[in-house]
What we know:
The complex is a heterodimer. Chain A is 17% helix and 29% strand. Chain A is an alpha+beta fold. In chain A, strand 5 and strand 6 (77-82) form a beta hairpin. In chain B, the strands form three sheets. In chain B, strands 1, 2, 8, 9, 10, 11, 17 and 18 form an eight-stranded mixed sheet that branches. In chain B, strands 5-6-4-13-14-15-12-16 form an eight-stranded mixed sheet. A two-stranded antiparallel sheet of chain B has the order 3-7. In chain B, strand 1 (32-38), helix 2 (42-55) and strand 2 form a beta-alpha-beta unit.
Amino acid sequence: xxxxxxxxxxVMADETDxxxxxxxxxxxxxxxxxxxxxxxxxxxxxxxxGVHFERWRHVSGCGKWFHAARNTMTLEVYGTYSAxxxxxxxxxxxxxxxxxxxxxxxx
Amino acid sequence: xxxxxxxxxxxxxARYHQGWERAWASPKPKKKYDVVIVGAGGHGLATAFYLGxxxxxTNVAIIEKGWLGGGNTGRNTTIIRSNYLQDPSAAIYEKAxxxxxxxxxDLNYNVMFSPRGVMMLAQTxxxxxxxxRTAHANALQGVKTEFISPQRVKELVPIMNINGPRYPVLxxxxxxxxxxxxxxxxxxxxxxxxxxxxxDIIQKCEVTGVRxxxxxxxxxxxxxxxxDCDKLAMVVAGNAGHLAEMAGFRLPMESVALQALVSEPIxxxxxxxxxxxxxxxxxxxxxxxxxxxxxxTDGFNNYTQRGSFHHIEETVRALVETFPIISRLKMLRQWxxxxxxxxxxxxxxxxxxxxxxxxxCGWGTGGFKSIPGSGWAMAETVAKGEPGSLAAEFGxxxxxxxxxxxxxxxxxxxx
Lengths: 107, 415
């Protein structure tokens, strides 16, 4: 079972206490943007085979949204962090790089 | 190719079965093909088969990173039905279902198609209304379904508890001509027919890059070397996003794990397929006697071909509630497959940003039932360079234009 530490309340939460929210750090496009940008924002996803940054909500706990860095090939978790950011923090990026030196980095 | 027949069995029986040929050849890749299809699962092989059969294109290679039919084609719960709400879906799934009816004869390979009937239980008032609507829509689409009473459900499936305390059975959407088929045989039958037409099926050959020049694909790099092609067809389900990334475009889909499990074999006790979408479990009995059970998808991206354990518990709980007599059964095996789920839960068939590259993906949790229809439509798209009537609505551009084929609720499947 997937276990993530909620960065707000510190609980090691089971997957059944959480709700996945899909890819994190999406660049948002709204009214006035081009059709292509709006489509990309709404539907296109990285869906990577490997390191993935995603949103989670601690539903059966504090109820807050947070972010997690996870590997979709091995299911290992590199860390969780606050949702109040537009890109992964340095500490998380370093944690991923330490395990996978060949990783291209977050783009 | 030597045909399979009762006579062939008698002939081989008389000579210690020494004369059976290999069902398909395993050649080395040639330098160049007219069409290269990536993915030798059901959809890829069906695409190749109809390219040859309907359009006479046989200089075709089908590339597979693992083994033939070892992905979702060999991992599903073998259900075939076409009781969809939206017109484009009903058209392509009904085409597939009707092709399944004659597939054993068409391929000279017994795919064990068993039109035993599929029943989708309505266990809330909302579901009753939804399925009645689907039955009316199906009548207009020419797909024969009917909404049946709880009494009729009980007659068809005596082991079902229709008066459960939580969700009593209020009726069901019944498609009598739906059913199951032997999933591996579908892949093997198509492979044998494709090989017989002179196509190359190349297994254990992973694509590592897509060669392009001037907005067109010129070939692919693989673990068995470079292969050039005039047209490229990507038919790789869960890995479609990964392959598209190599080709330089993104897809509106995400890959998640979907699980299934089978019980120990027991005597025949259920001769239809039952889907209970409110409690989320579906079940049929295989010819070996195992109960074949479909589970749920995980709520997160996953490429590991195994799912979360708690989904098994939820599925089994739902089925024990619906079929109390199975409560003492042991489960034999459990496995997962990676399904490619799009925003509207409908597949993508059509052109890509690269002129001579075509894509077929996004079948999500409903891939097996659609194999022949998907191959038929994809072959037409590849051969003519433009999607035909079956595939027209399923293009990638529907996401830009907002023309969704919304089956996320309409298909009535809770995952």
